[in-house]
Amino acid sequence: GRRMAPLIQLSNLSLAVGSNELLDGVTAQVIDGQCVALVGPNGCGKSTLLRALRLGVAADEASEYFTVTGGSMSLGVPADAVLLVEQDDLQWSALLPSAECSEEELREMTVPDALDMAAATGDEGAVEAVETWRTLHIAASQHLGWHTAGYNTTPVGKLSPGCAVRAYLAVALHRPGIRLLLLDEPTNHLDMPSILWLQASIAASGKAVVFVSHDAAFLDAVADHLWDIDPTKHALTVSGAKFGDFCRAKEMARAQQRLAYEAQQERSKRLTAAADKLRAASAAGSRYQSRDHDTMQRDFKRDRAGRSGGKAKALESLRDSEAAVERVVDRAPLRIVLDTARGGLDSHIMLGDAVLGYPESGPLPLVPLTLRIDFGERVAIVGVNGVGKSTLLKSLTGTLEPLGGSVHLGRELRVGNLMQEHESLPRGETPRQHLAALVAIPPFDAGVRLMQYGLTRQQVDRSIGELNPGARARTLLATFAYKKVNALILDEPSNHLDDEAVSEVVGTLNDYAGTVIAVTHSRDFLEAVRFTRTLVLSHDGLREIESLDDFLQVTEDAAKKVVAASFRRQT
């Protein structure tokens, strides 16, 4: 009985943010054990709906984010059985209420200490959690590289974002009292082994999950239901399809609509032309004067003209009576061709027994690294959180001196670091002002160049802070093209850019003649870009992987082993 009662019921719900309507009259439900992904274009209100679900709100209740303008949403479980996990704002006090500590106090403790604190009140679930974490930590350190996080010595407030999210999710997924998890972009800071661990853990936990993610591989693996938000109709469609199939079906529907639209335009053109011809005939006939005053001939022509006019009207009303097929608005796929400065004789990158690390904190626990990257190669670097991938990028591009060994960065290389420069774009300037100042060209020319890179006339003169990530990425690529950047560095592009911007970047990279070095944990990105080699960084150094699929398979098997160990403890 209890199992099938919905955990959340939306009944004719209407939701707005300020004066902006998001949903209108939506009905849907989440039941035990379901994994629901909220999908839809950028800015359609996915994260807002997620926060609203947390509150189980009724009409006229408002929060700082939104207002319910009609209908209701009811929770079928106590409020403390629902946990919202926001990637950049983890609430440890909500996760461990029995610790009876403030958020600040918990952030000063390590994960094991915080769990001990929660168990001190004799809460049975919390006592169990201490042992479960220990089992999980041992297995995951052995198989998935969790030892790099320093969970036993680092307070949770000082953990790297990926390590903090992972620990938080681990505790939440193993806690029996939590029946429903609301996750906002859970994979954003996680390395690949952790994403595969999370997929398997959600399945093993049997908990209901509602989540927002732009990681297609994760969506495909986890979601058994999709809530698709249509921002133009303020509607929500529930689908039981897998995410990949759903996207393909949507694309097919778009293609069919495109064809229907074109066919209708064609038909409309033909009917218009036929009606115009009849109208012309009608006009000619009504003016007809026969040479020898043959009145019969004249009346016949005029009579026929009248009928032609009638037929023209009929054709036009036939044309106008058809239900109009909406035009499919396609975003122009972007092909930014980065015109590279040619790689000359000295355009390779070389590490020789380089010892990576920072002057103040000393070397990282890595063996000395040796690597050569030739001009025009596309190299992907993967590895666990905290192993030193970003440090490796800094050393390769000369922004961080190695503590030992050598680095050679070819004299003819002009390096563009997409993520770093994306962060430092001047938010208050417009793209036109930024590009004009940067490369000393007249504002008019800067505007023309930016529009060639797919910015609209409006976007060229909007402040960079107001642009969507896709337009910001285009602005940046336009500046790179001007500087003739011939080595592109990308550090976790899918963390900083939305889907739209990432797909622009992928298209650009595949047509790019220069060198590309990318650190990524995104399967979609690794599969979409044609990398010449993929390297795994671990404490034992760099090794090349023959096939991405084999690497994923091995990692997935390791993740399943870890999950089996930690959930076996619980049963």
Give structural notes.
This protein has 571 residues and is an alpha/beta fold. 44% of the residues lie in helices and 20% in strands. It contains 20 helices and 20 strands. The chain has a 6-stranded mixed sheet with strand order 5-6-7-3-8-9, sandwiched between helices. Strands 16-17-18-14-19-20 form a 6-stranded mixed sheet, sandwiched between helices. Strands 2-1-4 form a 3-stranded antiparallel sheet, with helices on one face. Residues 330-335 have low confidence and may be disordered.
SSE layout:
Layout: E1 8-17, E2 20-30, E3 35-39, H1 46-55, E4 67-75, E5 82-86, H2 92-95, H3 103-107, H4 111-119, H5 124-143, H6 161-174, E6 180-184, H7 192-205, E7 208-212, H8 216-222, E8 225-230, E9 235-239, H9 243-286, H10 295-321, E10 349-355, E11 357-358, E12 362-363, E13 369-373, E14 378-382, H11 389-396, E15 404-409, E16 415-417, H12 418-423, H13 431-439, H14 443-452, H15 457-460, H16 469-482, E17 487-491, H17 493-496, H18 499-510, E18 515-519, H19 523-528, E19 533-538, E20 541-545, H20 548-570
Parallel strand pairs: 3-7, 3-8, 5-6, 6-7, 14-18, 14-19, 16-17, 17-18
Antiparallel strand pairs: 1-2, 1-4, 8-9, 10-13, 10-15, 11-12, 19-20
Helix pairs in contact: 4-5, 5-20, 6-7, 7-20, 9-10, 13-14, 13-16, 16-18
Binned strand content: 15-25%
Structural class: alpha/beta
Radius of gyration, in angstroms, nearest whole number:
30 Å
Arithmetic mean pLDDT: 86
**How far is the first residue's CA from the last residue's CA?**
22 Å
Q: Which spans have pLDDT < 50 for at least 5 consecutive residues? A: 330-335
